[in-house]
Amino acid sequence: MKQHRPWFDKERLGYLDQRKQATIQCIQDPSQSNVDNLNNVRREASRYFRNKKKAYLNAKIEELKNNNKIKNNRYVYRGISDLKKG
């Protein structure tokens, strides 16, 4: 797991645990219902992570715009480098 994911917090670990449990259940009993459940859990988790990351990036971009308006160049460049890392 990457160390630098500010949008990834403890709340999202529930989705990872749910996905892991569905995977284990599918491996132990590969019935069609378990495969469908695994696909649904994966889809929900991916959608949730994607939306949270998008919300974080949009907030960060808005912060960069505000810093650029008031000529805080140091924070603009620092924010840009943070976006590149994450």
Give a quick summary of the entry.
The protein is mainly alpha-helical.
What do these coordinates show?
It is a single chain. This protein has 86 residues and is mainly α. The chain has one domain. It is built from 3 helices and no strands. The longest helix is centred in the middle third of the chain and has 38 residues. The chain is rod-shaped, with a radius of gyration of 18 Å. The protein starts with 12 loop residues before the first helix and ends with a helix. 0% of the residues are buried.
Shape: rod-shaped
Number of H- or I-type helical stretches? 3
Order of helices and strands: HHH
Distance between the termini: 12 Å
- Rg estimate, integer Å: 18 Å
Can you summarize the main beta sheet?
A: none
Q: Kindly report the average pLDDT value.
A: 83
The class by helix and strand makeup works out as: mainly alpha
Low-confidence stretches: none
Number of strands: 0
**Share of helix among residues?**
over 70%
Number of domains: 1
Report the portion of residues in β strands. under 5%
